[in-house]
Amino acid sequence: MAQPNQTAHCLYLRTKSAYFRTASGERIFDESSTACYTCLKTLRPLGPDGMPADAQACHGRERGCFEEDR
Amino acid sequence: MSRRVTLNLGFEGHLQPVTVVIPDDEPTPWQWGERFEIVGKPTPRVDGALKATGAARYTYDISLPGMLYGAILRSPYPHARIKSVDLSRARRLSGVRAAIRMDDTVARFAGQEVAAVAAIDYETALDALRLIKVEYEELPFVVDLDMAMMPGAVSVFENGSNVQRPTVNEHGDIKRGLAAAAAVHEAVYATPVQTHVSLEVHGSVAEWDGDELTVWSSSQGIFTVRDDLAVYFSLPHNKVRVITEYLGGGFGSKFGAKPETVIAARLAREARAPVKVMLTREGEHLATGNRPDSLQKVRLGADRGGKLTAIELVQHGSGGIGAGSGSAGPFLSLYHSPNLRTEETNVFMNTGPSSPMRAPGWPQGCFALELAMDELARKLSLDRLEFRRLNNSNPVRALEFDIGAKLFGWKEKSAAPKSSGPFKRGIGVASAAWHALGVSGPQAQVIAYRDGRVQVVIGTQDIGTGTRTILAMVAAEELGVELARIECQIGDTGYPFSVPSGGSMTTPSTTPAVRQACAHLKEKLLRLAAPVLGAEPSDLEARGGTIRVRFDPSRKMSFEDVCRRIPGDSLSAEGERVPNYEGYRKDQAGCQFAEVEVDTELGIVRVLKVVAVHDAGQIIDPLTARSQVNGGVLMGVGYALFETRRMDPQLGIMVNPTMDDYKLVGPLDVPEIDVRFVEVANGFNNTGVMGFGEPAHVATAAAIGCAVYDAIGVPVRSLPMTPDRVLAAMETKA
Amino acid sequence: MNRFEVITPADLAHAARLLSGEGHVALAGGVDVIDLLKLDIIAPATLVNLKNLPELRGIESRAGGLRIGALTQLHEVAEHPLIREHYTAVADAAREAATPQIRNLATVGGNLLQRPRCWYFRHPDVHCLKKGGDRCYAPGGLNRYHAILGGGPSFIVHPSNLAPALIAFGASAKIVGPSGQRSVELEKFFTLPTVDPRRENNLEPGEVVVAVELPAPPAGAKSAYLEAREKQSFDWPLVAAAAMLVGAPGSHTVHDARIVLGAVAPIPWRSPDAEKEIIGHPLDAERARAAGEASVRGAHPLSDNAYKVAIAKVLVRRAILKAAGIEET
Ligand SMILES: Cc1cc2nc3c(=O)[nH]c(=O)nc-3n(C[C@H](O)[C@H](O)[C@H](O)COP(=O)(O)OP(=O)(O)OC[C@H]3O[C@@H](n4cnc5c(N)ncnc54)[C@H](O)[C@@H]3O)c2cc1C
Question: How many Å lie between the centroid of ligand 1 and the Cα of residue B656?
Answer without folding.
Answer: 20
